[in-house]
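User: Teach me something about this protein's shape.
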Amino acid sequence: MSDYKIIDFRGRFSKSYMNWYLKNKDKVSKLDQDKQDDLYYSMYGKWLEEPKDWLDGNSPANYFRSFTDDRYLLSALIDYIKEGIEIPEFLTDEIVERGDSLYPILLNLIYTDKEEDLTPQQFEQLLSESMILISRMGKEQPFVRYIQLLSSVKEESELGETLAELIREDAEEYRDQIIAVYSTSEQYGRMAFLDILSSLGKNDDTFDLIKEELEGESPDLVFLCGCINKTQDERFIDVLESILKNGETDYFSFKEISNTIEELGGNALDEKDFSGDALYDYLKEHDEI
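Assistant: First, the predicted structure itself:
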């Protein structure tokens, strides 16, 4: 089936639903929001199963099942990304169903650096979708490639979040590979790796990496305290107390550090006067300190 159509199924249904809603507004408006949502998705599910003249009598739910060449399913996925149209769930479901033939192609995509017809943002979306599909297929995942990709992510993005979520699944097995690329990773990738390593619990390498970040220029104390809490490594009590003793922090960071010390079994810290700090002044004015 080489003459497939890229159809905005959700958009078509929403237009049909709005026409119905305007005729039944009084009845629908009496429902609370959750029930209105349930009604919408119930109607959408039924609509997907109904034959459509504009699909030559096929139903939307069956449309991608009718593709006889599996490769056109991936071509359709790429076209949806290029057009900026919501990817139908029943397209990705069908790709997963045909995983035995499509897994090698998806794997090849993940090892590709770019697609000529896609913008960088579109290509990142394609990578994310490909990785999620492989995971759903239950096929072997190329975690070493995922670690390599995450190490180059500079800022928060869908791709970065997908990579971190997938790597977390087998992080213990790939701990050494993560540590090996940590120091040369971009900012987002480095913090993502640190969060993943922290979730594995107390470890000498993780302790050293977090301590190094704490001693660096303008550390993100709130984020790092979150990592420390995950490790439950009591060695950080002395490190954090030293930061409060030798450095200047704002009130919010002070509270985060103080709470983390207590979480690790340390002694509660005495409150300090942070007059001039906006948050401190606000809380004091409202008698919350």
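Now, about its shape. The longest helix spans residues 120-137. The chain has 17 helices and no strands. If you'd like, I can walk through any region in more detail.
User: That's plenty for now, thanks!
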